[in-house]
Amino acid sequence: MNKITSYGVISQIYILAQNPEVGLVSRSFYEYSTLDSVRVDFLIKKFGKTSILKIENHDFKYCSRLFVREGLVLKLLEKECQYDTETPTTSNNRTKYYVPEIDINQNEGKLLGLAVRYRRTKIIKQILKAHKIKPDIKLHKSERKIILHPKAFMVGLFSKGLCDMLEEEGPDLMELFSTNGMKKYTYDCILYEFCKRENTNYVKLIIEKGADVHAFNNLSLRLSCEKGNLEIVKHLVENGADIHAKDNDSLKFATKFGNLDVFKYLVEKGANIHAKNEDAFKKGYFYLVKSGVDICSFGYDLLKNACAEGHLGIFKYLIQNSIDIHENNDKALRMANIRFNTDDFLKIASRNGNFHVIKYLNKNGANIASIGNKNPSNNDLNRLSDIFNYIRVYSTTSSHKNRTTGYASNSNTNFNGDIHELNQSTHY
After folding, report:
1. 131-150 burial, b for 16+ CB within 10 Å, e for fewer?
2. What is the pLDDT of residues 91-125, one digit of tens each?
3. Averaged over 219-232, what is the pLDDT?
4. Secondary structure of the chain in the HEC alphabet?
5. Percentage with pLDDT > 90 across the chain
């Protein structure tokens, strides 16, 4: 019986019955029927949102004593019941009611949305401050009732334009939006935008106001790791952002864009450095080793990335830490080959100095003859003669010389260069 007479069931029976005498069925029915929230639903169900506040013959058409209970009226307005602003009221009643001439929330709040989109700051402030307006009407206190503006209804706010205005106007404008009940989705959107702009002060303010740092799968954190803003990254993590989201993408972005400070911080906070992340190998290897990671377990991937991009310092460090340069049939060396994979790495060699990587590999025992026998063009030979000479001399003098042919067969380059000088190059 207690379950049957619960608030939810009784209130729904009263509302759907559309008969106020149902309130006399029992004490529970009577008590619930007197609650403003139940009476509001009852009236809306009976008369509709568009009619409940309709004026006729200088009075409310359906509920002449409606404003005796001010709380009831406020709840009707909260339910977005439309009040009549056109019908004049000159009744002889003792109480007069004054309502705003302008509905600031017309068309479901689109007025504010348009003002934000077109950056009409003055209009925006007027709308956001409207609920504080208290008209000074000179009537005896007992003879007047004033209906104030509701708070602004915020929907479809353009986040980029909103952030532009917030930066221009300062935190006071942000406070106006918050006071009017800014939607959570809007907070989340502008948090991302301010992370993108690296506006630390507003990032902190938006989080304080209730933005969700997990929104859009922790997108704000991933973006901040890409930007390299350590202060924002720390603040997001301290407020619960997930550094492991999307297979440790935060670590990936930090290393991809060379943000070592952010990389270190994420590792200290427990980011998974063992996740498949080639960028982390390339730019974070020193810190990985310092943190006790067995980089030998990543041997081929580390060497491959270092070779492909000509990072001689990475090579030295990896080889000194026992990476096997012969792994996968000398593929690391072949990745450094200027003719490997339809000349893609020829460009890398000329741009990033892979010549010194090749020399260092050879000096440490790699099979330079495994580079292959593809013949370069004359243009390549003229532009990169040092690299070709070195490979030609060492491939023909090694025990694997039968695997290669002389690269200089079509070139006028001088084969009597100082090989000793090349080996002693100060570049490595």
Report:
1. eeeeeeeeeeeeeeeebbbb
2. 455 567 777 888 888 887 788 888 888 889 999 99
3. 95
4. CCCCCCHHHHHHHHHHHCCHHHHHCCHHHHHHHCCHHHHHHHHHHHHCCCCCECEECCEECCCCCHHHCHHHHHHHHHCCCCECCCCCCCCCCCCEEECCCCCCCHHHHHHHHHHHHCCCHHHHHHHHHHHHCCCCCCCCHHHEEECCCCCCCCCCCCHHHHHHHHHHHCHHHHHHHHHCCCCHHHHHHHHHHHHHCCCHHHHHHHHHHCCCCCHHHHHHHHHHHHHCCHHHHHHHHHCCCCCCHHHHHHHHHHHHCCCHHHHHHHHHCCCCCCCCCHHHHHHHHHHHHHCCCCHHHHHHHHHHHHHHHCCHHHHHHHHHCCCCCCHHHHHHHHHHCCCCCCCHHHHHHHHHCHHHHHHHHHHCCCCHHHHCCCCCCHHHHHHCHHHHHHHHHHHHHCCCHHHCCCHHHHCCCCCCCCHHHHHCCCCC
5. 21
Burial (CB count within 10 angstroms: exposed 0-12, middle 13-18, buried 19+), residue 308: buried
The count of C-alpha atoms lying within 13 angstroms of the C-alpha of 123, restricted to the half-sphere facing its C-beta, is 12
Enumerate residues 6+ apart whose C-beta is below 8 A from 131. Answer: 148, 149, 150, 151, 152, 180
Whether 199 shows a pLDDT value over 90: the answer reads yes
Residue 403: is its pLDDT beyond 50? no
pTM of the model: 0.50
Q: Structure tokens of 139?
A: 């009537």
User: Out of 69-83, 190-204, 254-268, 301-315, which region has the weakest mean confidence (pLDDT)?
Assistant: 301-315
